[in-house]
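chain below, 804 aa
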Amino acid sequence: MMSKIRVFFFLISMMISPVAFSQVLSVTISGMVRNKADKTTMPYVNVVLKNEKDASFVSGTITHNDGRFSIENIKPGNYLIEVSFMGFKSKTQPLFIGSITAFLDIPALELEEEATALAEITVTAKTSDISNKLDKKTYSLADNISQSGGSVLQSMQNLPGVTIQDGKVQLRGNEKITVLIDGKQTALTGFGSQAGLDHIPASAIDKIEIINNPSSKYDANGNAGIINIIMKKNKQNGFNGKVGLTTGLGALWERKENLPTIRPQYNFTPKINSSLSLNYRKEKVNIFLQADNLYTETLNKNEFVTRTYDDGTIINSQLKRNRNTNFLNTKAGVDWNINDQNTLTVSGMYGSEKIIDRGDQPFFNSDVSQRLRLWQFLEDELKTTAMATATYQHRFKEAGHLLNIGFNYTFHREDEKYFYDNYLPLSTGTDAFKLLSDEQVYDFNIDYIKPLKYGRIETGIKLRNRSIPTNMNFIPGANSVLDTDAGGWATYKELIPALYGNYAFENEKWEAELGLRVEYVKIQYNVNPNHSTYKSDGYNYTQPFPNLRLAYKLNDNNKLSVFYNRRVDRPNEVDIRIFPKYDDAEIIKVGNPALRPQFTNSIELGYKRNWNNGYLYTALYHRFADGTITRISSIVPGSTLVYAIFQNAGKSYNTGLEAIWNQKISEVYSFNINGNIYRNQINAFTVENLYPQPNIFSAAQQSAISGNLKLNNVFHFSKGWTAQLTALYLAPDIMPQGKISSRYSIDAGLKKSVQKGKGEIFFNATDLLNTMVTKKQIQGLGFRYTSNDYYEIQVIRLGYSYKF
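prediction:
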């Protein structure tokens, strides 16, 4: 073990993935030229953009018949704009182009037949070569060689500011995030949650945006921020495409021997990811198709637990879960450029996720000399998602002046069957479940964007109508621990109309962005009237969600920003679902219809310094949540079963410091270091759990300082070779009722461009030292337990792709 640690810290000293902050690298400027005397527009006027420093030519155009002009691909900076026409006096004036918007519409330029030339005004400030708002970071998955060929969740674990815990993404130590696909919430990843990320093929994804401080144009859900997954879509002329195939193996050896009498755990698990991308573009029509299939066998869980009860009883157990997953995802659509001002896009997405889990959980006495019980299960799940989207865009004559109208329909079906065999010394029983849930979501939005000389205004409305009827059929077996009416039906209904407005301003020193979103939310959860514990429930509110960003450019290479926003985390439907479900043989999960939203206020101070081929970004942040949603584990008198139920636990705090250092040393070598240290605190609280019978749970205040460190090296060698070596360290952290220990891993990848750049081959390996073990300590009501989870993390992959 000590040798592994030495190797780890040696590699840490020389490691680190390129990171690109969200930024506007090029701007389109537009405007109009007219006659000052009679205000008529002037066609065929020469418009020239020059460098402010030396008056060198940058770009130019002439006005159209309506007197308007547009110049594209201009870098942010200070310029001179010059307009001239025969018989009129040329006019030159300074023009500052900022970096907070991709479009800039300047006030009308007027020419006089008889006038003196305007004196040239010199402006001394200059924007940075790497300029951004510090609110969003963008990562290309093509650059993440060491995690290529897996799922989106696996690809994200090396991204700065992101950690993965219990299959969920955390931003700065907080899992309350909203996941978008192409800017929209979908059932593939959950509405307000992050379901399914471990099964979406990374091969379908172009890039990922991490938005820590969302503006008002985004839904208010997700206090930790937003992850926007942007899928691949080609728009090249003619017919073209890309095919790819990746294969891999995991669970390369048995990390810890099974307890006696258990079925074998998976080893040498296969991974197969195939992908196809097709595109045809001609004149006004663009047709696209993206299809990906990811098949995996995985040792999804292999947790060894020692549970100690207050009466001194000690139980040892192992929960092993062998998982087979097949995820098919297809997206196809048509872009129709009706004319220069109008575009219509119609697209559809289909996803099918098949999961089969086969698991074992034996229970032994304290010295593992006697098996007290064996629990085995089969979970068969089929999740089907279909989505239809229609988007219309009207482009006004000014560049960037847009009206967008969109409609999105999503259907998502959960068809799940569960069988749990309970082997006791004198009897055997089987609990059987059949769950069917059909989710339908209708989204309608109108967004309007108007560029200004020093910024832009954005406003819009959105309406969502969502319903989820769920039916659970429960057939209890002998000695079942669940009540006989654990099945039944329930229907979740959600109505959310919202209105937002956002104003952005920028000059040579200051940037400001101020927005307000107002949401009305109505939630109704109707349950089977015969349910023994829960009754129909719901809530509604009308709440404002403001956001503010104020930035000051200290000089050419230094920028300081301050953020504030207010956000909400509404309970997901599964959080309030009344049907109990086995988490393991003695842990029962059940929802809570009385659960209410948690509201969070966040402030952040960000600083960025640029220099040649590098930058340093730091952020100091603080979040305060009221009505914190967390799962509480407790037992009831006379039983050893643990009931895990979501509750509003009161107030919690998250304060931290994040830093990213990115540097290109040479054409061969670049690195990135990302560190995040934070303090989590959950105040003392007392709640009443109603299921299966009323019981009071109290917890003292918990707090801990935690963090993570990620290091990445990227090497660009000759003849198309690229290598990546990454290291990740996660410090100890607190959870509700417990703690999780530190863990670390090292990944590596190698990629080569072949066939004159049309082909690409890669090889990678994750967790090289086999060190990623999740260790927890939990203190519940009437019990405590420690666990070590030796689930599969070490995987090797080989892949090939070809563009045509």
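The radius of gyration is 29 Å. The first helix runs from residue 2 to 12.
thats it, cya
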